[in-house]
Amino acid sequence: MINVIKKRKENNNMCIFCKIVNGEIPSKKVYEDDDVLAILDISQATVGHTLVMPKKHYANILEIPNNEYQKVMLKVKEIANKLNTKLNPKGINVLNNCGEAAGQTVMHYHVHILPRYNDNDIKLEFTDHSSNVNLDDILKEIND
Ligand code: AMP
Ligand code: ZN
């Protein structure tokens, strides 16, 4: 147990978003309160691309406790509305990457808000693989 706690501490010390929360690395703050921080994503995949995160370190959506998750997601909604009003995009993507295989590169839970101005400003493609999948089989696997 002590090892697990130690490992968590090491992770947090190295975590770039913990450093941003602690003010050790500068950021462009869109919103801040006691529990939640929202900053402009350094990559600006689209203009206004914002990251919303809990101030406490949780690796991903599978680890963050419900009370913290609720706080973050309520702010995601508020900030999406603010970006919509101020930047007037044509649409908005809200997304979270969980795990390296899903594209997560910073292992501190965060939600991307991506204002969209053109159909092709970022690519999120959902290819239809339904002919390879039996819906009843997969439903049984999930629900049984
Ligand atoms: P993800 O790939 O979902 O883990 O997203 C991590 C995001 O963090 C990427 O979009 C990066 O551009 C962004 N990022 C990395 N370092 C910084 C930083 N110092 N300030 C703001 N955004 C950052
Ligand atoms: Zn962290």
Count of domains: 1
CATH fold assignment? HIT family, subunit A
Backbone structural class:
alpha+beta
CATH homologous superfamily designation: HIT-like
What is the general shape? globular
Radius of gyration: 18 Å
Gap from first CA to last CA: 32 Å
What can you tell me about this protein's structure?
With 144 residues, this protein is α+β, with helices and mostly antiparallel strands. The chain is globular, with a radius of gyration of 18 Å. It has a five-stranded antiparallel sheet, with helices on one face. It is 35% helix and 17% strand. The chain has one domain: HIT family, subunit A (2-Layer Sandwich). A hairpin with a 3-residue loop joins β1 (29-32) and β2. The model has no long low-confidence stretch (mean pLDDT 93). Bound molecules: adenosine monophosphate and zinc ion (ZN). Adenosine monophosphate (AMP) binds next to loops.
